[in-house]
Amino acid sequence: MKPLEYPEEVKGILSFDFDGTLFLPENEVSLEPIFYETIAGLRDEGWLWAINTGRSLLYMLEGFQQGGFPFAPDFLVAREREIYTAGDQFGRWHRVEEWHAHYMRDMAHFMEESAEFIEMMKRYIEDETAAQWIEEEGDPAGIIASSEDEMLGIAAFVEQERQSYGLVGVLRNSIYMRFTHKDYHKGSSLQELARRVGVPVEQVFAIGDGHNDIDKLHPEVAGMIACVSNSQEEVKEYVRGHGGYVAEGHGSLGSVEALRHYLGCEDKLLHRPL
Ligand SMILES: [Mg+2]
User: How close is the Cα of 36 to the center of ligand 1, in Å?
Assistant: First the structure.
């Protein structure tokens, strides 16, 4: 799987979350072909595109297959913060090492400064909740709650406790939560991408469905913000509150709808009914 040929003139960048925003495994067609047709049309006009996901690189490679991607996105942001540029002639992904080195340096600092917080959270989760504490290689720590309601309660507790630990950032999506350095999330990775390709914030489109997408739906990150109709309620509220577009469609159809809303309908394809 290779990306389309790099445009002569870059018009802007389109950033999509994957699970829920594009990919709906429970549907007969998990990712609608009209999404790729729309992207191919916009790509001809100079719009680059990126997948910004909480998935790891390996898990996302599986996602590309499951979603039947006919061509690769120009960029992939895995685990909300590892930036990759699209495949070479062999379809290999290349991590942006400069950005990764900054992350590793800042994470080392985070681990030193926040060890006490992490330890306290672990005790709280294990002793006082039905949630599960998880430690994965390359990530400081995470939580899997027994329900979305329990996660909301945990999130409120975390918000209060992290006030005394300046570096603690939280990435949350349905029943999952991870701790990280506060400067690394979907928002800062998308800003870095836009900086690298040299496009202003007004030419950045971002769409998502989960709490961890809110960082990239910030007005300082993207001038065009949207969410699909199957988004978490707090995401819809955020998008509405910031003058963004809440689609009526689910998943990839909702994403196409949002692209049409912001990027006009000059192209014939964009007139096709969804
Ligand atoms: Mg999602």
Answer: 18
Domain assignments of the chain as residue spans, ordered by start: 12-81+185-271, 99-181
The pocket of ion ligand 1, defined by CB under 5 A, consists of 17, 19-20, 209-210
Q: Give the tens place of pLDDT for each residue, 148-175.
A: 999 999 999 999 999 999 999 999 988 9
From the centroid of its chain, how far is CA 8? 27
In terms of phi and psi (left: phi > 0; alpha: psi -120 to 50; beta: otherwise), the region of 61 is alpha
pTM as predicted: 0.92
Q: Topology of 12-81+185-271 in CATH?
A: Rossmann fold (3.40.50)
Distance 94 CA to ligand 1 centre (A): 23
**Ligand 1: centre distance to CA 31 (Å):** 13
Give residue 210 CA to ligand 1 midpoint distance, Å. Answer: 5
